Amino acid sequence: MCRNIKTLFNFEPPATEAEIHDAALQFVRKLSGFNAPSKINQAAFEQAVAEISASAGNLIASLVTTAQPRDREVEAAKARARSAERFGGT
Which residue range is the domain that position 49 belongs to? Predict the structure, then answer.
C-alpha cells in the first residue's frame, strides 16, 4: 500500500474532507500509475477520486470504536521520531 496514505479514523480533530480527498487522490495515483493523467484520462481519473473520496468518507463516518481518539500532534511527533531514528535526521 502507498506509504503516503495515512490512517484517518479515530483522530481528534476528525479527518477533514480535504484529507480524505488527498488520500483518495494518492490511492488513484497509485492504482493508475499516473501522477497527472493525460487530458483523455482526466475525466475518469477525477471521477475515480470523487467516488473513492465519497466511499472513504462514508466508511470513516460509519466506523465505531471504544478507543480514545488519537491526538494528531502526538502521532506526528512519534512519526518524526521514528523517521529521525531510521534516517538519522533531526
Answer: 13-87
